Every structure is written in structure tokens, then in C-alpha cells.
Amino acid sequence: MNYTNNHLDNRAATPGPGHERVLHWLKTQGPASTAEVASALGITAEAARQQVQKLVADGLLIGETMPSRGAGRPRQAWALTEAGHSRFPDAHSHLTIQLIGSIRQLFGEDGLDRLITQRAEETRAQYRQAVDPLPGLSARLEKLAEIRSSEGYMARVERDGDDWLLIEDHCPICAAAKTCQGFCRTELELFQELVGERSTVTRETHILAGGQRCTYRVRTP
Q: For residue range 66-82, what is the model confidence (pLDDT) as tens digits?
């Protein structure tokens, strides 16, 4: 699929009402207290409390007990429920799982591997066309994050000392990847190819392994 023609309902990219802004911020930043939400979004503590409670009532947030940052009792933080995560693009997960099951039945694991390889080759060609002409690692990573965001991954690039971090706060193919982790394997290989031989890419956090997001560290010599 050509990333320039992707029209997923990416509400996360354009949060609207207050409670949607809260949901989006918690999705990208991870569990946080009501006070932290209020501070980050520049709203009053009471407004944050009301918006959080609406999301809890709708089944989109749940309270978690988090260790205290220093002395004192544990603090309560708010995190997205499964229903909350489902508000973000999922690339038609139910249909995808059905299709993967049908391919396994009809063509076996070898047939599914060939499909994943074909998808990876098509994606590689599209990404390389966009990324290869760019000079410098930072420009290439920014373009990669732009492409991934257009596909629903909510991607961004950050500097971490001498390294770069490619961070994806959402996985729109999570259901497919849970059913067949070959999808994730090909993505890691593709990222390594795009950054070039002088850099190395490692996955530090992984949504499928219970992480809040997928984080890739890019190291240069």
C-alpha cells in the first residue's frame, strides 16, 4: 500500500475535544496522574479530573497504582484500556486475522512466509524511494517517521545522547503481528537497511511484548 494514499481514520493525529486530547496524550506518554495530565495539557486540575472521569466511565481509561517518585505513598495513574487503545487505527484487525488464518489453511506456513516476504519487498521499494535520496541519518529518520505516521504508527524521532530513537506510540497492525510475528521481523530488517551499514538498529521496547510503545535505537559509530 502506498503510504501517500493511506486514509486510515487516524483520530490520534488530530485530537479534538478535551477528553480526546487526554486520551491522545496518555497514549503517547504512558500512564500518568490527573495532575500530570493537567500540567501537560495546560488545563486546570478540575478540568483534567472531569475529562479523565468521562474516559473512565466510557471504559477507555483505568486507574493503576504506580510507585512513588521518591518518599511517600504510591500514586494513582491513568492508563488506556484495551477499548482505549482500539480508538486508534487498527488497520481492520478482524478481517486481517481471518485472512491470515485462511492463508495458513490454504497454503501453510510457507505460503504465509511468502506473503510476508512479498509485502516486505513492496514496502521496501516504497520506503527506499522516499528515503534513499536524503542526505544524512537525521533526515532519513525524520522521513521514515513521517511515512510511518501516515500509516498510523504515530511515529516520531528523538535524540538520546549520541543515538537516535525512532518511537512508535501505536501499532495499526498489532492484531496481525500477534497472529504472525513475521511482520515485526521484516520491519526491523527494513529499518536497518534504510539507515545504512554504518548504523545499527535495535528494538528496545515492543508493544507485542507488553511495552507501552515500540522503540528502536539507532547507534552510529
A: 766 666 677 788 888 87
